[in-house]
Design a protein that fits this description.
This protein is an alpha/beta fold. The protein has 17 helices and 20 strands. Helix 6 packs across helix 12 (296-303) and helix 16 (401-411) packs across helix 17. InterPro entries: Folylpolyglutamate_synth_CS, Mur-like_cat_sf, Mur_ligase_C, Mur_ligase_C_dom_sf, Mur_ligase_cen, MurD.
C-alpha cells in the first residue's frame, strides 16, 4: 500500500537507508532515534525532506505507524518496542523492508563467527567473475539505500541474528550458516536454543530449489537439523570426508561435490586466508559462487586479489622478525579459538576487555600449546588470570595498549607472533572493536618508528 506511515527506529546506516527507500516509494516517513544522529545522517534526512527526531522517542508519533522498521541494535525487549508490538504494529528489519522492493537474488550469510570474511569473499568472487552484485547487511552500504536505485542482479548479505529476528517474508536463494556458539545470549533470555532458532531463520521460506550451505561439524547446527529436518537443497561442509559432507578437506585439497556433474578440487595453497576456520569460510564462499555460475578458473584468479576485512587476523607489521596481528574483532572465545589455531609460532597473546560470560575452558589446550605470555588489556582481568595462571608462565596486566605492545615486544623472540585477540568486548577502554584495532595498529607503527630511530 502506497503512502503508508512508516516509522524508522534508529538513525544509523540501516535506519537512514530504510528512510530513503520508504521516501522513494511514496510513504509518509518519520525517523526517531533516542541518541544523537551523526552530522552526515542528519544532513541526508534534511536533504530528502524526511521528518526525524533525536534524543527522544515521541510515542504519539511513533504509534501512528502502519509499519515500524527497527535498527538491529535496538533490543526487542525495550519498553518502546514492547508497546509497539502490543498495538499489533508490525516491527521488521531494514533487510525485510528492502527485500520487498527488489527482484534481485540473495546470497545470505550468517554464523557466530566468520560471516564478515565469508561475505566479503563471496562478494569478491562473484564481482571478479563478472556478476552484477551488491554487498549489504552488516558490511557495505545499507541494502535499503541500494534498493532505491536497484541496479544489481544479486546481493550478498551478511546477517546477524538481530537482523534475522526482524525478517519474516524474506527468502534467500542461497543461504550459508557457518557456526553457532554462545554469543549475545542476553538478547535471547540466556537460552542457547533461542539463539540457535534465530540463526536458522536464514532458511525460512526457502524451498527445495534453494541452496543451503552449512558447516555440519558444528554440533549446534547438526543437532538442530537432526531434530528439525529442513526441506531445502542441502550442501554440508566438513573438514573430514568421513563425515559425509558435499564439500570437504582431504590432504590439503578442498574437494567440492556440489552436484552429480560438478566435482572439482582446489589446493589449499591457492587460498590467501590463514587458519582452518578460513577453510570453512572458503568452502562456503566458493560453493555459493559456483551455484551462481562462477567458473573454477574465475574463482582462482579472484583469490589473487582478495583482501580480508580489517581487524580479523589482519597482518599489521613485522619488526625484527616479530609479527604483529590485529584480531580485534574476536570478541568471543570461539573467535579466539580460531585465531590461536591459525599459528604454529609461539604467541604473545593480548586479551581482555569486558567479559561476555566467557568460558575459557574450550581454549585452554590451545593456550597451553601456543601461548608463551599473556598480556591482559582491560580494567578487570581477574577472570583471565584465574583461567590461565596455571597454564601460561608469564601474565601481566595493563590498561595501556602502547604498554601492551612494547611489553609484548620485549617478551617476544625472533619468529614469534604478538596477537591481539581479545575474547572480550572493548567498551572499558575503547569506543568499539574498530577503535581498539586502529589504536593497536597505530601503536605498532609508533613502536617500529621508535626502534628504527634508535638504530
Amino acid at each position: 500500500m502506497m503512502d503508508e506511515k512508516i516509522v524508522i527506529i534508529g538513525g544509523g546506516e540501516s535506519g537512514v537507508g530504510a528512510a530513503l527507500l520508504a521516501k522513494a516509494k511514496g510513504h509518509d516517513v518519520f525517523l526517531s532515534d533516542i541518541n544523537s544522529l551523526s552530522d552526515e545522517n542528519r544532513n541526508v534526512l534534511r536533504e530528502h525532506d524526511i521528518a526525524f527526531e533525536e534524543g527522544v522517542h515521541t510515542e504519539e508519533k511513533i504509534f501512528q505507524a502502519r509499519t515500524v522498521v527497527k535498527s538491529p541494535g535496538v533490543p526487542d525487549g525495550v519498553p518502546l518496542i514492547r508497546k509497539i508490538k502490543s498495538l499489533k504494529i508490525p516491527v521488521i528489519s531494514e533487510i525485510e523492508f528492502a527485500a520487498r522492493f527488489t527482484r534481485a537474488k540473495f546470497i545470505a550469510i550468517t554464523g557466530t563467527n566468520g560471516k564478515t570474511t565469508t561475505t566479503l569473499l563471496t562478494y569478491h568472487l562473484l564481482k571478479e567473475s563478472g556478476f552484477n552484485v551488491g554487498l549489504a547487511g552488516n558490511v557495505g552500504e545499507s541494502l535499503a539505500k541500494q534498493v532505491v536505485q536497484d541496479e544489481f542482479d544479486y546481493y550478498v548479505l551478511e546477517l546477524s541474528s538481530f537482523q534475522l529476528d526482524g525478517m519474516f517474508d524474506f527468502k534467500a536463494d542461497v543461504a550459508i550458516l557457518l557456526n553457532i556458539t554462545p554469543d549475545h545470549l542476553d538478547r535471547y533470555d540466556d537460552n542457547l536454543d533461542n539463539y540457535i532458532k534465530s540463526k536458522f531463520r536464514i532458511i525460512q521460506n526457502m524451498d527445495v530449489s534453494d541452496k543451503f550451505i552449512y558447516y555440519q561439524d558444528d554440533p549446534n547446527i547438526h543437532g538442530y537439523i537432526i531434530k528439525n529436518p529442513v526441506h531445502v537443497d542441502r550442501y554440508p561442509i566438513s573438514l573430514s570426508k568421513e563425515k559425509g559432507g558435499s564439500v570437504y578437506l582431504k590432504d590439503n585439497v578442498l574437494v567440492f561435490e556440489v552436484s552429480g556433474k560438478d566435482h572439482f578440487e582446489m589446493e589449499t595453497r591457492h587460498i590467501p586466508l590463514k587458519g582452518f576456520h578460513n577453510l570453512i569460510n572458503t568452502m562456503a564462499a566458493v560453493t555459493a559462487a559456483k551455484f551462481i555460475g562462477a567458473s573454477l578458473d574465475q574463482i582462482k584468479r579472484a583469490f589473487g586479489t582478495f583482501k580480508n576485512a580489517a581487524h580479523r587476523l589482519e597482518f599489521v607489521e613485522s619488526i625484527n622478525e616479530v609479527t604483529f596481528i590485529n584480531d580485534s574483532k574476536a570478541t568471543n572465545v570461539d573467535a579466539v579459538y580460531y585465531a590461536l589455531g591459525s599459528f604454529d609460532q609461539p604467541l604473545v597473546w593480548i586479551a581482555g576487555g569486558v567479559d561476555k560470560g566467557n568460558d575459557y575452558d574450550q581454549i585452554s589446550d590451545l593456550v597451553r600449546k601456543h601461548v608463551k605470555a599473556l598480556i591482559c588489556l582491560g580494567k578487570d582481568n581477574r577472570k583471565l588470570r584465574e583461567a590461565f595462571s596455571s597454564i601460561v608462565d608469564h601474565i601481566e596486566e595493563t590498561e595501556s595498549i602502547e604498554l601492551a605492545i612494547s611489553n609484548g615486544y620485549e617478551l617476544a623472540n625472533k619468529g614469534d607472533v604478538i596477537l591481539l585477540s581479545p575474547a572480550c568486548a572493548s567498551f572499558d577502554l575503547f569506543k568499539n572493536y574498530e577503535d581498539r584495532g586502529e589504536q593497536f595498529k597505530k601503536a605498532v607503527l609508533k613502536l617500529k618508528e621508535r626502534i628504527n630511530q634508535a638504530v
